[in-house]
Amino acid sequence: MNIVCVLILSGLLGPVRPHSHAADGHVHAPSAEPPGSSEFHLQPGRDLAVPSHAHPVAAAVEALNPQLALHANSIFRLDDRRVVNDAGDPVDDRFSLREVEINLRATVAGFAEGVLIFTSEAESPGEYETGLEEGYLSVTRFFDIPPGPIDIKAGRFRPEFGRLNEQHTHEQRQTVRPRSFASVLGEEGFSQDGVQLGVGVGSDRTGQRFRVSSALINGGDMPLGEDNGGENIAFTVHTELSCSVAEGHWMEAGASTWQGRNDARGSHTTGLYGVDLTYEWRPHGVGRPAAFAMGCEGYYTAIDEAGRPDSSPVGGFAWAEYACSDRTSISALIDFFESPSDDRVETTSAAIYANYRFDSSLRLRIGVDRVLHSDDRALNHSDTVYFELGFTIGSAEHRH
């Protein structure tokens, strides 16, 4: 009902504007890319400038007619055994319209961007939960100080942690998120209420950029820190360095941490530490699709909770993707993690995907996921085949 109301209201406010492209340093939503581009198109760095549409008159018009996009993602899966979700409902061998996302964006007060992202998700096939995934105000030049302008984000958002957490379901390279990521940050990624400040040095034009950000957020609501309730404030810190190492070759390295308390006095804490590395070969220059890209993300956790032994599980994944043409690509993933609930339980898996893009708004993906080894008997040597169809209506893009 909420999604229907939003669609009706948006239709009454007027037509959707054409695409707007920005260099945000992260994988773009399908609607944000030119037709025929590869879905793993990366662009180095975030734009430090005020949005071009921040003119007061244009802002007033946009406030009444926000950019709107709808992303839908449907899958069919085949499994070699019975698979149930956390609610105990079977999810194997069936169709699922697993998520519909509505993205609304508009300039606010001529200098900020307001973002509302509503989702309707099927935790079990045919059973949907609708809610606000993100809702925040973002200012790209909140305050100018040496060495660069400070940006701010306030509301409910995905904190900067590695590269994958800021990506939504329709932006992913894989049908499902790597198990190592899901074990600490959740199957859909981690979002929370709070405020985030960031500062960046350099620009896309120089090919080199350094950024650091930190967020104060409510605790809890993630697999790793379920005992860290909302009354205990958590914080994150993220740093990233991106540069052009040679003509057509670009790299980005990052480090992140999440820290939270597990009791009111703070004598028991949980810490998550992450590193990430991305390489991209763009023979046709900056702003063009990559011919080849690869990366990795690793996690180390220090868990100290009352009534249970301390544990320090580790995990991580590596991926690679090659563009066979402007429309087709193939990708592979290898993943390993130790369970946060018992770091003696280890799981290693691998997956391969073939992607085809009809245009910038329609994508087809076929993938095979194989658990090579797991101390969890329910996972050990399991196989799943995914058929995924995703489409986009509208023009709003993710600018993380």
Structural notes for this entry:
Helices cover 7% and strands 52% of the residues. The model is unreliable at 1-54 (pLDDT under 50). 38% of the residues are buried. It has one domain: Porin (Beta Barrel). The protein has three helices and 16 strands. A hairpin with a 2-residue loop joins strand 14 (342-359) and strand 15. The radius of gyration is 21 Å and the shape is globular. With 400 residues, it is mostly beta strands.
Key attributes of the depicted protein:
single chain; 400 residues; mainly beta; Porin; 16-stranded antiparallel beta barrel; 3 helices; 16 strands; disordered N terminus
Task: Explain briefly what this protein structure is.
With 400 residues, the protein is mainly beta. Helices cover 7% and strands 52% of the residues.
Number of strands: 16
CATH superfamily assignment? Porin
Terminal CA distance reads 28 Å
CATH class (first level) name: Mainly Beta
Task: Tell me, rounded to a whole number, the average pLDDT.
Answer: 82
Given the structure, what is the number of helices?
A: 3
Characterize the biggest β-sheet.
Answer: 16 strands, antiparallel, barrel
CATH topology: Porin
Layout of helices and strands, plus pairs?
Layout: H1 2-13, H2 56-64, E1 67-79, E2 94-108, E3 112-124, E4 127-145, E5 148-157, H3 179-185, E6 192-203, E7 208-218, E8 233-246, E9 249-261, E10 269-281, E11 292-303, E12 314-323, E13 328-339, E14 342-359, E15 362-374, E16 383-394
Antiparallel strand pairs: 1-2, 1-16, 2-3, 3-4, 4-5, 5-6, 6-7, 7-8, 8-9, 9-10, 10-11, 11-12, 12-13, 13-14, 14-15, 15-16
